[in-house]
Write a structure and sequence with these properties.
The protein contains 13 helices and 15 strands. By secondary structure, the protein is an alpha/beta fold. The protein has a six-stranded parallel β-sheet, with helices on both faces. A four-stranded parallel β-sheet has the order 3-2-1-4, with helices on both faces. Strands 5-6-7 form a three-stranded parallel β-sheet.
């Protein structure tokens, strides 16, 4: 069947398109949209074809502040959009949102933005923060719809006059695929030739000890220092407790490491391993076995999250969660119901909450995990995100 409309999605990596936008891409292709992903080529690019979409390579300096490189990015986005002439343009992440929107506006192509968290820049107050806010205000002024992933970011953009309220809508993060991330799908899955233990025992009953798992990109603002400092405290009281880190640098497992001020240096990670404080699991394309093989997921983030995908996936897999009372993070945890909240950058309180989790009876942790699953079923189903997009796309091209 002939494709009826053309849509371009610009994003900072193929990894992000595969892991966070595949549900939307499949839905669009099923509805006969001709979808093209504009993103840097990486080890995930070949997988895009399996979603039914095309790919255009776009080199992008994601962390750089070079004016010349950013102007070059703007020109390249303009040339791509002028050549392809899509009916709708969907940018994600900061530089595609800003420079892609400017290019699309010049060509009178309808834009639907997604502000998936504000990152490191908005945690500081300096010239770069001012510049980014100014660029956002200029680039988003003609957008048909601007999706935010939490109410705090929505409010901040409105209060600072960066966007107009009628343009905006809050989504439940990027949503989560509740069929793929479900506890029962792994009952027969084997990892390292051993079956994953679905029914965890308490720390008293288990010989291998209680397992805390942290899943995140390896940047300090995700709370790695606080996680490790809390581990030092807990090991003194519960020496059999395990602390695992599942993470990667840059934009996906196996991606080239790019040094920046926020990166957790590999030498530091190795020193934690040498101290027997943590187990470093590296990166993976499938977090589900690791989620099922832990007792609790921890994310002590003070990063300007949208809605942390790691926590959505953990909740969907019926894991209890400990995270910070912080933007995006607090939305996923109802304190005392499906996990615990703690202040940002306070490893002592974090350690207390982790000890509280260890000392809970097994059945109470199980109930917390079930409440996590119920919460994402109720509030974070990926289909809610997809339907919001399809409606906005229909309105934008009308």
């Amino acid at each position: 069947m002939k494709k009826s409309k053309k849509l371009i999605m610009a994003i900072n990596s193929s990894f992000n398109a595969i892991n966070f936008r595949s549900g939307l891409i499949k839905a669009l292709v099923k509805l006969n949209w001709d979808v093209t992903i504009v993103a840097p080529t990486d080890q995930y690019t070949e997988k895009l074809a399996s979603l039914g979409c095309k790919h255009i390579d776009l080199k992008m300096d994601n962390k750089g502040t070079s004016v010349l490189r950013d102007l070059s990015l703007l020109v390249r986005l303009f040339l791509i959009l002028r050549s392809e002439r899509p009916s709708i343009f969907l940018p994600y992440t900061i530089k595609p949102n800003i420079y892609g929107s400017i290019a699309a506006n010049l060509l009178k192509i309808p834009v639907i933005n997604n502000i998936a968290g504000l990152g490191v820049v908005f945690t500081k107050k300096n010239w770069l923060t001012f510049l980014v806010k100014t660029l956002y205000k200029f680039s988003l002024r003609k957008s048909k719809r601007i999706f935010f992933q939490n109410r705090n970011d929505f409010d901040e953009f409105i209060q600072n006059g960066l966007v107009r309220r009628h343009q905006c809508e809050v989504l439940p993060g990027s949503g989560v695929d509740l069929k793929y991330f479900a506890p029962n799908v792994l009952r027969d899955l084997k990892t390292d030739n051993t079956h994953i233990n679905i029914n965890k025992k308490s720390s008293v009953e288990r010989e291998d000890g209680f397992v805390f798992l942290m899943v995140a990109r390896l940047i300090w603002e995700k709370g790695f220092r606080e996680f490790v400092d809390a581990a030092r405290v807990i090991i003194k009281e519960e020496p059999n407790t395990k602390f695992q880190i599942l993470g990667f640098h840059a934009l996906g497992p196996g991606a080239e490491y790019v040094e920046n001020s926020s990166s957790v240096d590999e030498k530091i990670i190795n020193s934690w391993v040498s101290e027997s404080l943590i187990e470093f699991l590296g990166g993976t394309d499938d977090v589900r076995p690791f989620l099922m093989d832990c007792d609790c997921v921890v994310l002590p983030s003070y990063y300007r999250e949208g809605t942390p995908r790691a926590l959505l996936e953990a909740a969907a897999m019926a894991r209890p969660i400990i995270t910070t009372d912080w933007i995006g993070c607090r939305d996923i945890v109802d304190h005392g119901v499906n996990g615990f909240l703690c202040p940002v950058r306070d490893y002592r309180v974090l350690a207390d909450r982790m000890l509280d989790m260890i000392q809970l009876p097994e059945y109470k942790r199980h109930i917390m995990g079930q409440k996590s699953r119920e919460k994402v079923e109720r509030e974070y189903d990926e289909n809610l995100v997809i339907q919001s997009y399809l409606q906005s796309i229909s309105e934008a091209k009308a």
